[in-house]
Queue: 2 jobs
Job 1
Amino acid sequence: MAASSPPQVPPTLGSSWFQYQAQLPPQTHLPLDRLYYYDTPTHVYVIGTNSEAVDYRLIKFTKDDEKLDVHFSDVYDREYMVNLVKTLREVSGGSLQTGKAKGFLGFVRFTRGYYMILVTKRKEVAKIGTHRVFHVTGTTMVSLCEPQKHQFLRRRSDEEFYRDLFLKFELDGAYLYYSHTYDMTNKLQMNMAGQLPWGGAPPPPQPHRI
């Protein structure tokens, strides 16, 4: 019977991170930082690809006032996406609205459906290992709400009031940062700890006074 290897145990206080080769996880894929959105009266389509522009992914939003109705598709090639965009233009006529973006910033809701906030401009401000960190310098908001009928008959709604109030807060100059590949919700130590043999962070050093 072969002897089993001793189990990996967390380091003791004062142990060096280098001793256990703590490191950030490598960047294993190119980020989908080339987004194209197509806004129709009933749906919003977001097509994403990377710098190689070989594989494409599609996200389809159905405009709904009650919920966030989203469908994620499989991976498609360029020919499929070209045909899809051509079909959207033919079906929508002159009502198709399009735009480009660098990433998703999030979703916001007021009194009706959701709005999708996209990053349109960015500036690289840091690099942590191979992971790039960007400062958001431009945004756009795309409505995922159902289209309203008889626009010329209705009065200004609460939805418009809150939406306009939200837009007055200039997101472009705000302190908004993001990374496609680095988890900015965790501390650096926690991100490095995931690569340790036992999958956890070493204990913190003993407290000291300054």
Note: Residues 201-210 have pLDDT under 50 and may be disordered.
Job 2
Amino acid sequence: MGAAPFVMGWSGARQASLSAEGRALRRHLPAVRGRVVTLLRSAVRR
């Protein structure tokens, strides 16, 4: 139960930084970006 707010706050902060990080990752390693998106989706499902 205590993990829900933590995951929400983590995903929110992560998405904010992903806007900048995602651009760099897309240029160099699209596979890594896909992996990050998958991790975010799995975290949101929890």
Note: The chain has two helices and no strands.
